[in-house]
């Protein structure tokens, strides 16, 4: 199997997608942050000293999604048509699940954008609560589904 990000001299390169036809592409990624009951309550009751944690995490996730090609060396700059973020409360953990959906019509997928958005959003939650709980755990960052492109539809089982 040839690696697409290496040229014939084994030097890094960005894949040329110029000849590909644009298609509608959607990727959904998610991740979890587990925390102490005290940190969870600070989020739920909006008493964290750094401000509204979940709202800030959503903005950060959107920014992270948009800035993916600045952070991941071989990612193409993309004209995203939409980014949706959802946060689910997980009181039994306690913690939160962050889900990012990235959309576009283009020549390459948006999986890395959705995954980066989740990562940045969860890191923002950690940053805003680390004074309460340095032992928070970010985990299970993963692609949930993707649509479009040559490889077609993927759905995590």
How would you describe this protein?
The protein has helices at 37-44, 53-66, 68-71, 111-129; strands at residues 23-34, 82-90, 95-106, 137-147, 154-155. The chain has a five-stranded antiparallel beta sheet, with helices on one face. Helix 2 (53-66) packs antiparallel against helix 4 (111-129). By secondary structure, the chain is an alpha+beta fold. It contains four helices and five strands. A hairpin with a 6-residue loop joins strand 4 and strand 5 (154-155). The longest helix has 19 residues, at 111-129.
Tag the structure with descriptive keywords.
single chain, 157 residues, 5-stranded antiparallel sheet, 4 helices
Percentage of residues assigned to helices: 25-40%
Radius of gyration: 18 Å
Which sheet architecture does the biggest sheet show? 5 strands, antiparallel
Category by helix and strand content: alpha+beta
The backbone outline, from C-alpha atoms, is elongated
N- and C-termini, Cα separation: 26 Å
Number of E strands: 5
Alpha plus pi helix count: 4
Give the ordered list of helices and strands. EHHHEEHEE
Strand order of the largest sheet: 2-3-1-4-5
* Percent of residues in beta strands: 25-35%
Average pLDDT number:
92
Low-confidence stretches are none
